[in-house]
Amino acid sequence: MLLVLGTVDSLHFFGDEPIRRIVELLTKTPSRNGDKKVLDVGTGFGGTARLLAHRSGCKVDALELQPDLCEAGRALTRRCGLGDRISHLNDDFLELVVTPNAYDVVVGLLCFLHIGHWNDLFQRCFDSLKPGGFLYIDDFFLRGEELTVEDEQTLKEDVYCSELLRREGIVAGLAACGFEEPSFEDVTTKWQPYLLDRSTKYHADLAVQIARDGVATARELDHFYTRVARIFQAGNVGGYTLIARKPL
Question: What pTM was computed for the model?
């Protein structure tokens, strides 16, 4: 069931790839295998949380701001028989009471851009991690000289992103919180064809999507995929994968 769900319940890019990398990070943390714990920020339907729990045996706190997504994720987790390993939490990470040194890995897959408040966000990630734990992020960053009016409109109205940092700002912000020097990988050229292909295929199958999901939902997704592909092709917005470790 998890393999089937993986095509619809994971809202990040490149399917299984980030899951494998996070599972590998879990093997490098100091905690014993039975004590491994992950915080999945912006879990959506909980696909990432379920795959991590299933493959590594870790426990996961799956945090989601939107109550409908959280409830759907909880129901799917229950149907997959993983309710003993995953706790679905409907809350705002910026308002949540942080439990210090609680997690081996904190995960943010395409969700930090929606949260912003970068200093507070990064500090909460740092404080939540156990010594020797890892922060794993896939997200957008400001890559070009400056955003165009269209870029800003897409980020605000379609992506719901208020502010992006440059690479230097991200690295400096993490260092200020106490993280070791992060591994920052600019994956823009990898994401560009992926996003363009997603947009092209969805639009080509729009009639099928309308029949399945209804006119409003299908047209909204078609618009969203088109705008995101366009903003990445323009080059001012990029994608990155980052791994940062909390010192022992």
Answer: 0.92
